[in-house]
Design goal:
Length: 124
């Protein structure tokens, strides 16, 4: 089992930046990749970004492209999501999870060991 704890959320204004952190503990050697998802009130969970923990290569969902940057620090067992130029539509609870492997990274079913989430609210 891997445990993830997200942090860094908060209330910001349109155009501001936030950096979310996802600290992993437990069987961290089993992490080959991790992802960030978000879920707005009344909506389905949405893929945001993925990072390969072996080589750091990222993959972004449409909502993150050009504004968000995902990275990881293996020494700290932490993945990050730098979010710039935030918009009200970015308001959601942001979750990180461990990628279970396979050919896709954009589906919630590609992940397990979900964290409890960190809330991001962007005011207009």
């Amino acid at each position: 089992q891997v445990q993830f704890v997200e942090s860094g959320g908060g209330l910001v204004q349109t155009g501001d930046s936030l950096r979310l952190s996802c600290l992993a503990s437990g069987r961290t050697f089993s992490i080959s990749g991790s992802g960030w998802f978000r879920q707005a009130s009344g909506k389905e969970r949405e893929f945001v970004a993925f990072v390969n923990w072996r080589d750091g290569s990222p993959y972004y969902g449409n909502s993150a492209m050009g504004r968000f940057t995902i990275a990881r620090d293996n020494a700290k067992n932490t993945a990050y999501l730098q979010m710039n130029r935030l918009k009200p539509e970015d308001t959601a609870v942001y979750y990180c999870a461990r990628w279970v492997g396979g050919n896709t990274v954009i589906h919630a079913t590609d992940y397990d060991n979900w964290g409890q989430g960190t809330e991001v609210t962007v005011s207009s």
